[in-house]
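Reopening this one. Same input as before:
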Amino acid sequence: MTPAEAVQLQVSLASQLIDGPPLTLREGMLVAGVDVSVQPNADGVAWSQAAVVVLAFPSFAIIETVTAQMPTPFPYVPGLLTFREGPVLVQAFEKLVSAPDVFIFDGMGRAHPRRIGIAAHMGLWLDRPTIGCGKTLFVGRHDEPPHERGAWAPLVHRGDLIGAALRTRPHVKSVYISAGHRIDLASSIAVTMACTGKYRLPEPIRAAHNAAGQMG
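Same output, byte for byte:
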């Protein structure tokens, strides 16, 4: 698929996303963190390394970790991350034994020029609630949120509310939260905060990042 064809597919799929319903984490629910690391192998060929880590709420005990590796199938093009990382994620998702209630991705949901970042796109494949949690601003504008834990400011692009700049800890940089599929923004913010402890990033993302980075 060419980048132009990938863009057209995104435009087509974005209309299939479902905004909601609300989701509240309860004891015993499972939350999955999702991350992909792209690294060169010994021959200098880029390999994608995916990790999905399932944690129990609210203890955050790790229930399951699945990983997958494959040569990176698509060039780096801003806005087309799913086509670079999605194939290896599909391989990892197919290994899951447990059934997470919600997935938090290291990446964007609706906070995307065509409103379908990797969390939203993969949410269609999973048909489960998905949340995008980005570490840096990709698209849109926002005011600076107050510096207390849990404060957030609307992230707006072309007049649309696409996400939130969320302060997960006092006086640290915001993370960028957006709904993916089958969840609303308010729930996405609440779930992220419920999964965040003493670090800036929520525990499921931290666990997935560690697992993806440890793969050889």
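So the earlier flakiness isn't reproducible anymore. For the record, The mean pLDDT is 96.
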